């Protein structure tokens, strides 16, 4: 009887430990892109050197881009957009499919005020983003990693990165 209780406790604790580990792995994590660029080793193995180069190109180079605004969509470039840009206030426009979203690999969202953190951004609501790999947040004021991580839900396999770009 004592062996059965002990065995049951061991099994129970083992299951609890594994579920806690999986829960920790599935939490949203945001990576500071500036630190990632300056780091000789990629951040906890999440990003390869090729990933960082591709991201840098998507963020800083001139790429076909779809701009999402309150009055509609505007595409810059001759080819299908690989980048989408919007301010946080226009996130709800992404829940309606648009052919311009199909090839987008990077979604760049600008956070311009503390009020933007009051909204919750459920990434499972995105429609038509079949090739999306990265969500890039540009914060125009000092904001923390935790604030950025907490604003997103249902990130799935997407990688969330951010940069703080305050005027000097």
From TrEMBL:
Which keywords does the record carry?
Signal
Lineage, top-rank taxon, reads: Bacteria
Q: Which residues form the signal peptide?
A: 1-26
What is the designated name of this protein? Choice-of-anchor E domain-containing protein
Q: Which organism is it from?
A: Salinimicrobium profundisediminis
């Amino acid at each position: 009887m004592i062996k059965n209780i002990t065995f049951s406790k061991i099994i129970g604790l083992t299951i609890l430990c594994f579920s806690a580990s999986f829960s920790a792995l599935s939490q949203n994590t945001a990576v500071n892109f500036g630190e990632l660029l300056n780091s000789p080793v990629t951040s906890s193995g999440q990003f390869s050197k090729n990933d960082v180069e591709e991201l840098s190109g998507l963020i800083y180079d001139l790429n076909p881009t779809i701009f999402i605004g309150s009055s509609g969509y505007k595409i810059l470039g001759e080819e299908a957009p690989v980048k989408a840009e919007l301010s946080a206030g226009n996130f709800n426009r992404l829940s309606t499919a648009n052919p311009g979203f199909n090839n987008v690999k990077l979604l760049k969202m600008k956070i311009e005020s503390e009020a933007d953190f009051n909204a919750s951004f459920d990434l499972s609501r995105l429609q038509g983003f079949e090739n999306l790999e990265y969500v890039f947040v540009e914060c125009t004021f000092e904001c923390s990693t935790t604030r950025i991580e907490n604003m997103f839900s249902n990130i799935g396999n997407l990688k969330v990165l951010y940069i703080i770009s305050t005027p000097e």
